[in-house]
Amino acid sequence: GAGVSQSPSNKVTEKGKDVELRCDPISGHTALYWYRQRLGQGLEFLIYFQGNSAPDKSGLPSDRFSAERTGESVSTLTIQRTQQEDSAVYLCASSHTPGQGVHEQYFGPGTRLTVT
Amino acid sequence: GQNIDQPTEMTATEGAIVQINCTYQTSGFNGLFWYQQHAGEAPTFLSYNVLDGLEEKGRFSSFLSRSKGYSYLLLKELQMKDSASYLCAVRLTNSGYSTLTFGKGTMLLVSP
Which of A67, A79, B2, B20 is the most buried (most CB within 10 A)? Predict the structure, then answer.
């Protein structure tokens, strides 16, 4: 079946504008994660969804960042009033309900966001 | 807080063996993952350890010692295509749900 997909693959936006990033997880995966990866850095956890609820939003860097998930499938990450420091690759991953066992996360190709 | 350490960069020669170490100080440990990430691509799953010991999968092996908060990824018979970043990630289970915390990654450069 299809893997995790994300759109757009690249986004260039002006400082102060809002952007919306989309993630389509693997069908049947109840868990969905958003990460941010700055150039040359590791993955920074942003938010975790189990079904449509978000039990862990601890990684969202500010109130300009929000995310939602509908129908236990598609998720959108919204960044309002973008700043240059928001420039990064935003990665989405999905998995079966995490817990015991492997339940590895499958990553999408990412959205490269550039704020000018 | 959670802390995961791994070397920033390593170099090795084609055909050789390389060991990438990862140390962690976390609470709620529920498994350790290694991912491979080629430049400009998404991370892909390599291995998972939850019990102490060695897990072997072809040219790649991963080791875990929970008492020492230590893991390593061993790559044998290195190939040029193994040049990539290798990410150590700890699965944490708190309040009934699990998330992954990643280290900054180790960039491995394989030379001819």
Answer: A79
